[in-house]
Amino acid sequence: MTKHSIAVIPGDGIGHEVTPAALEVLDAVGAAHGIEFSRTPLDWSCETYLREGAMMPDDGLERLRGHDAVLLGAVGFPGVPDHVSLWGLLIPIRRAFRQYVNLRPVRVFDGIDSPLRDARGIDMVVVRENSEGEYSEIGGRMNRGFPDEMAVQQAVFTRTGVTRVVDYAFTLAGQRRGRVTSATKSNGIVHTLPFWDELVAERAASFPGVEWEQEHIDALAAKLVLRPGHFDVIVGSNLFGDILSDLAAAVGGSIGIAPSANLNPEREFPSMFEPVHGSAPDIVGRGIANPIGAIWSAAMMLDHLGHPEAGRQVVAAIADVLANSDVRTPDLGGTTSTGAFTEELIRRLKNAG
Ligand code: NAD
Ligand code: IPM
Ligand code: MN
């Protein structure tokens, strides 16, 4: 029996609907593979903030640190400004634990309709820089309420920060179809992205087996729609990677299926696994949230924890339900509830094992 300690933060909104689904799947696959999860449930959320004035306790990061991984649902809800909830919980975890790679795979499963006419061959991974870039803490708001009111934020690109995420992307491409596309905007932004481009070119020289190209973010957004099958690994800054990952997820059929892994590749600290989507206040409480993003994120966690076969079986079970039944949530055109979808997936997972 292998044991792992997992911190579980359902967070806000549909985080409370999709995280239990992911946990049920983990228990089912764990039982078959001799993996036991000891879970620490943490109710850190916007509700906690409204009650106690903080998204997580002062020693929150310390309490997470001893775990093998963090499983998170979603953070943010109407009633608490996003900059308060996100800078109070999600972003500090990504940064304190040096989770500088945000890995966001996209596939079109058989049985899912992509909104695109030609969705053949979509199988890509967005490697998003997750600790600096446009999401910097340098800046501020000034002269509130006056005509010269303004807001300033400095984008921060460091040699260390760019190099490590670019190396990760090239290494990953070397294990996949061997192509890296770097998202840039060096034609319009004078300082930061030309530096990003230089560092990408410099690192590319160490990966002669990997083809690479750079695309301006605006043109890349268009190509993702027109020729999605072309892309293998896309590497981008924090903001570009954020936008591209929702776009790529939608191209794959629904933002509800997209998973993500916030990785500390050196494994000095726990990594965090969470769906790409947010708390979806518009559908909360109706039992119709698509749990695939959360379940696939849990599969990425299994892979990270050294159980790739268990992770592969979970993704295969997702593919099986979608390809061989009409069981799916309304975002994918079905009528199935979150719970019934999860039940069907677990039934197929057990049958396959
Ligand atoms: P969102 O992802 O919550 O929702 C966008 C749209 O997608 C909505 O129509 C929603 O119903 C739909 N959707 C999302 N997930 C779905 C699922 N699993 N199944 C079916 N439909 C789904 O994005 P938003 O509306 O921009 O943000 C809502 C809140 O979530 C905000 O507070 C935002 O800051 C936060 N947020 C958090 C994270 C995170 O925790 N990583 C990510 C994105 C947004
Ligand atoms: C995501 C989210 C977050 C981000 C927000 C909620 C801060 O959109 O995880 O993609 O931009 O990183
Ligand atoms: Mn996002």
TrEMBL record:
InterPro entries to which the protein is assigned, alphabetical: ICDH/IPMDH (IPR050501), IsoCit/isopropylmalate_DH_CS (IPR019818), IsoPropMal-DH-like_dom (IPR024084), TTC_DH (IPR011829)
Pfam families: Iso_dh
Annotated ranges, domain Isopropylmalate dehydrogenase-like: 5-345
Gene3D superfamilies per record: Isopropylmalate Dehydrogenase
GO molecular function, one term: tartrate dehydrogenase activity
Keyword tRNA processing: no
Catalytic activity: (R)-malate + NAD(+) = pyruvate + CO2 + NADH
Keywords: Manganese, Metal-binding, NAD, Oxidoreductase
Protein name as annotated: D-malate dehydrogenase (decarboxylating)
Species of origin: Nocardiopsis sediminis
